[in-house]
Design a protein that fits this description.
mainly alpha; about 55% helix; about 5% strand
Length: about 230
């Protein structure tokens, strides 16, 4: 069973768009959550959590706002001047997506730090990273994600769902075998579903003029693969 899955993964084809029926839980194994950022021009953000991960964290009430995010960015030296309209909108989305998964201000700052700080060599040097990469098909997962991101284009929520669905169906992976390598390579840490939200903040932040250059998902996966090889 395992060997067959590996053989299939090596000859997988990655179409630009994959049909995903989110109402068929038994097919995708995913649950969906909707977040609305609020305010003018707000958008509903669709996020996924794996249904086969019973230990996935449940979001608590969000007590953080864009002002809290901006304050943290200034304290850490990631934003010096007054935020632009785009930076303020990003801060609102960051507060909406991460706030309910942060037990306190320190935890929120920690999650934001994953957006603004990324060093693949340092990540690979950790013992826990070696544990993740030693698991079944972990490196194959990273390579397949890299192939998709190298096609170009931002890593949106819809595109992230397509990648995850393709890996689940093509490599027959579930739970930490699937999600931990993705989170390690893109968020810099293997963990639970809040890291997927960090990943979905990357590409927009990379296009904004923060005082620290944010590495996009594509830049991160390239750096990570180079460090692993």
């Amino acid at each position: 069973m395992r060997s067959g899955a590996v053989k299939r993964s090596r000859r997988m084809l990655w179409p630009h768009s994959l049909p995903v029926d989110l109402l068929q839980k038994e097919r995708t194994g995913l649950k969906t959550r909707h977040y609305n950022t609020g305010g003018p021009g707000s958008a509903t953000i669709l996020l996924m959590t794996p249904a086969d991960q019973p230990d996935a964290p449940v979001a608590s009430a969000n007590r953080f706002s864009s002002a809290d995010v901006v304050s943290i960015l200034r304290e850490r030296g990631w934003l010096a001047a007054e935020p632009s309209g785009e930076q303020h909108a990003w801060s609102e989305r960051a507060a909406a997506m991460l706030g309910g998964h942060a037990a306190g201000r320190v935890a929120l700052a920690d999650l934001l730090g994953l957006v603004f700080q990324y060093d693949a060599n340092e990540i690979i040097s950790r013992v826990e990273s070696h544990v993740v990469l030693s698991r079944y098909a972990a490196r194959d997962v990273v390579r397949q994600v890299a192939l998709v991101l190298l096609e170009g284009g931002p890593l949106t929520s819809d595109r992230f769902k397509e990648i995850v669905t393709a890996l689940k169906e093509g490599m027959e992976l579930r739970g930490r075998e699937l999600f931990h390598p993705i989170r390690l390579a893109l968020a810099g840490r293997a963990g639970e579903g809040e890291l997927d939200r960090v990943i979905l903040l990357l590409d927009e932040a990379a296009g904004l003029s923060f005082d620290v250059a944010v590495k996009s998902a594509r830049e991160r996966i390239l750096e990570f693969c180079s460090a692993v090889d």
